[in-house]
Write a sequence for this structure.
């Protein structure tokens, strides 16, 4: 893949023009931040620092994948942070009570917990026709409440988490953290699926024009439930990864993640009202936000700016989308005016 | 094409279909017979039951009684999917595409061709789209997103979708309402191609000249009932209108001569960079001045700038001698100007709000006491105007989106007339409304000028311009190129000025 011919590049840009441009823009932004910070502080480019960059972004990027599926259908899933917390603690609790549980069972269990919550979110949203903003806001609190009940003031300590499990959180291959590899594989698999299968194209159709989707015979309800279920499952899996990464969790694990995830998704170019955007963009959005956070730390800038910068970036992303939209509109209008008469 | 339907079996027969919604009988006798290879017009005023009939064919509604035969076999559609599977496709006036998906995906959504591993076969999908476009004789890039396609192109996409389904009954529900002449011509080419390929096309339009141009047979409905079906060459425009309204429409444009009085609106040297340039005219009380010109000539833009929606770069607007500040519709309203925009759904009405709220909206300051709006006054105002304009509605509080196009336009008119304006700017007063309501609107305008209102009317329909206007101003590419008196204005002189073919009339 080293030789990219000009026509191929042109075709790529034409095919998914603005989206591709968006992903490229994020990659460039990441590189700019990275290089600028490295000039100030050479330690920023050292291996362990880069590893930290990738690990730090992995979890949010993973959740952003699921969130993209949901947002593309013109819905939103606010419960992902709570699901991470619940899944992480329950998996940890199983290890406490059954120390010999194999590591993969922990991951499966976490994923299953998330999938159940996601399916419930999706079913309530589609059957009761309640806006998902409300449904998942409710499940954000309910799941956190259940979590708090189960945790009951205790916490999981590193000694209770099997070694085979925490390995996933810190080991590396060729210097690349496992965590980042796992998430990257998921990003590419889901990203490929989102382009390639009827069911995933249906998600875009639903978000783009819900009524037309129903008229076209798209099983909208089923698809939305699937999107929520996958988002939940990825969040549940993310909970297990959370435990693997930090080896400790209490009742607050994953609190507030939902907002970081949505920020990453929007910065990554997924339209907040559905219909467009890619999983890759969302994941890159997560990497960009994390890189900026770490860059501010490395530049010894007050952590207050972390959030301010994230906010500014969100506004910039939305302004960019709006600007592109206006330009497209204007081009359409002049093109239209040209061939109209009477 | 005399005998085509004598030889062939009818493709689709709908017989005495009825449909009621609660106590409203929308369809009393819905009957129509379509033969392969014909374009069949379905005509009737708004509310005649055409839409209900179409929705029964579409499977959106189910008839309460009556029967439907498709290729001789009785059928009943319980969903749009049923209807489509049976080969019936509906092309709506405003197609509902997926703006974010590509044109090809829009055609094949939910049934994309697949290759091994259930993966979408992009190449085959593109070819399928190109095939459909080739059969229709049009060029569209299947890879571009649907966002930004003109309404005409969106319809083409819908038609391509229909033929990719092998639909052999194609219903076009007022497809030309939002189209330009060139686009209509292309749609007709496409429709002829469909006809030649043996499809039965049901064509709904308010524009009779289009019906005469493309259709072979006509079915007229009135008050939910079938009136008659006849070959087009056995009918005249008068026959059709009489069948539609059930009476003679003596005068479609009943402009009565009025005495123009003082200047109410004076626009001098109005310019907006790149849009229009140095436009000057006056409108007197008691006269209708029409702004004519091709689409894109800047007619709407001049009106918007005069009303203050868009800022002007130079020039002056005076109402009864007082200059209006730049870019302030509020000031224009306060000075007695009302503006009825061309797009009532987007600009004229708040679609989800009730009829009464919509009517009262520009008059709220008058309906206030101590800073609070009096609901009863709002009601009274709306009832008053609904009566005067003979608005047909269910409940005052139901959203205006539930009204027919003609009645929506009446609500827009009511909302502005309730302010008793001295200057009325009205953009496309009768676009997309039926013949009967059209005549009502014209009569209303006539009454307004008789009462001394100054009317500035923009219209793309030349008969309307010629019938209603005391003077015609013609714009071409943002410049005022001709001012024609009622006597001078003819279809020919206006078109010559609008297209820039000199020949004597241009100023």
């Amino acid at each position: 893949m080293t030789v990219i011919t000009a026509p191929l590049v042109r075709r790529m840009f034409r095919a998914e023009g603005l989206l591709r441009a968006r992903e490229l823009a994020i990659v460039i932004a990441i590189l700019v931040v990275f290089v600028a910070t490295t000039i100030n502080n050479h330690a920023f480019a050292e291996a362990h620092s880069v590893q930290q960059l990738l690990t730090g972004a992995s979890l949010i990027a993973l959740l952003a994948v699921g969130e993209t599926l949901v947002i593309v259908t013109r819905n939103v899933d606010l419960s992902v942070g709570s699901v991470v917390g619940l899944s992480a603690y329950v998996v940890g609790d199983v290890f406490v009570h059954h120390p010999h549980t194999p590591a993969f069972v922990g991951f499966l269990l976490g994923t299953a917990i998330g999938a159940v919550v996601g399916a419930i979110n999706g079913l309530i949203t589609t059957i009761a026709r309640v806006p998902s903003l409300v449904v998942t806001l409710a499940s954000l609190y309910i799941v956190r409440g259940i979590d708090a009940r189960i945790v009951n003031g205790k916490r999981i300590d590193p000694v209770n988490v099997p070694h085979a499990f925490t390995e996933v959180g810190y080991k590396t291959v060729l210097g690349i953290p496992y965590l980042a590899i796992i998430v990257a594989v998921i990003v590419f698999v889901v990203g490929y699926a989102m382009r390639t299968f009827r069911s995933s194209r249906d998600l875009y159709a639903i978000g783009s024009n819900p009524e037309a989707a129903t008229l076209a015979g798209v099983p909208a309800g089923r698809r939305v439930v699937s999107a929520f279920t996958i988002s939940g499952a990825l969040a549940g899996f993310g909970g297990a990864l959370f435990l693997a990464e930090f080896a400790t969790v209490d009742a607050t694990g994953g609190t507030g993640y939902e907002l970081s995830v949505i920020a990453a998704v929007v910065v990554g170019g997924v339209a907040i009202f559905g219909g467009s955007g890619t999983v890759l963009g969302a994941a890159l959005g997560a990497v960009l936000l994390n890189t900026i956070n770490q860059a501010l730390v490395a530049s010894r800038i007050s952590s207050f700016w972390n959030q301010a910068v994230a906010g500014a970036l969100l506004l910039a992303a939305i302004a960019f989308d709006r600007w592109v939209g206006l330009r497209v509109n204007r081009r359409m209008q002049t093109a239209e005016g040209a061939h109209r008469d009477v | 094409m005399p005998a085509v339907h004598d030889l062939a079996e009818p493709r689709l027969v709908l017989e005495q279909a009825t449909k009621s919604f609660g106590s409203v009988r929308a369809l009393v006798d819905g009957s129509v017979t379509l033969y392969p290879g014909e374009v069949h017009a379905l005509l009737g005023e708004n509310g005649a039951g055409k839409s209900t009939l179409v929705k029964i064919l579409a499977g959106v509604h189910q008839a309460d009684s009556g029967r439907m035969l498709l290729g001789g076999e009785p059928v009943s559609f319980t969903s749009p999917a049923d209807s489509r599977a049976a080969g019936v496709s509906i092309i709506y006036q405003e197609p509902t595409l997926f703006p974010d998906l590509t044109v090809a995906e829009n055609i094949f959504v939910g049934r994309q061709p697949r290759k091994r591993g259930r993966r979408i076969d992009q190449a085959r999908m593109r070819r399928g789209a190109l095939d459909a476009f080739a059969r229709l004789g049009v060029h569209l890039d299947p890879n571009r997103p649907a966002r930004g396609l003109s309404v005409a192109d969106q319809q083409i996409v819908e038609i391509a979708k229909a033929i990719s389904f092998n639909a052999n009954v194609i219903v076009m529900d007022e497809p030309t309402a939002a189209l330009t002449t060139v686009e209509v011509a292309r749609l007709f080419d496409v429709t002829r191609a469909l006809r030649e390929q043996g499809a039965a096309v049901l064509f709904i339009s308010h524009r009779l000249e289009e019906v005469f141009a493309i259709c072979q047979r006509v079915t007229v409905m009135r008050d939910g009932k079938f009136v008659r079906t006849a070959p087009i060459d056995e009918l005249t425009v008068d026959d059709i209108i009489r069948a539609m309204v059930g009476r003679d429409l003596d005068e479609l444009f009943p402009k009565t001569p009025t005495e123009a009085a003082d200047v109410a609106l004076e626009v001098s040297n109005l310019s907006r960079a790149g849009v229009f340039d140095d436009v000057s005219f006056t409108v007197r009380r008691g006269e209708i001045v029409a702004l004519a010109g091709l689409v894109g000539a800047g007619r709407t833009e001049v009106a918007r700038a005069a009303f203050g929606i868009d800022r002007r770069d130079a020039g002056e607007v005076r109402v009864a001698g007082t200059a209006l500040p730049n870019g302030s519709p509020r000031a224009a309203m306060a000075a007695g100007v009302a503006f009825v925009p061309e797009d009532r759904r987007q600009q004229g009405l708040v679609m989800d709000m009730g009829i009464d709220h919509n009517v009262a909206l520009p008059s709220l300051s008058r309906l206030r006491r101590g800073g609070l709006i009096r609901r009863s006054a709002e009601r009274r105002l709306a009832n008053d105007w609904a009566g005067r304009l003979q608005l047909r509605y269910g409940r005052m509080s139901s959203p205006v989106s539930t009204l027919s196009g003609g009645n929506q336009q009446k609500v827009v008119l009511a909302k502005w007339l309730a302010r008793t304006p001295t200057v009325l700017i009205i953009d496309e007063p009768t676009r997309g409304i039926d013949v009967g309501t059209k005549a009502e609107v014209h009569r209303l305008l006539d009454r307004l000028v008789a009462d001394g209102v100054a009317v500035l009317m923009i219209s793309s329909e030349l008969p309307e311009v010629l019938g209603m206007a005391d003077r015609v101003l013609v714009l071409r590419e943002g410049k005022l190129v001709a001012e024609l008196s009622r006597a001078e204005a003819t279809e020919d002189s206006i078109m010559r000025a609008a297209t820039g073919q000199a020949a004597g009339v241009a100023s």
Q: What stands out?
A: The mean pLDDT of chain A is 87. Chain A is about 75% helix and 0% strand.
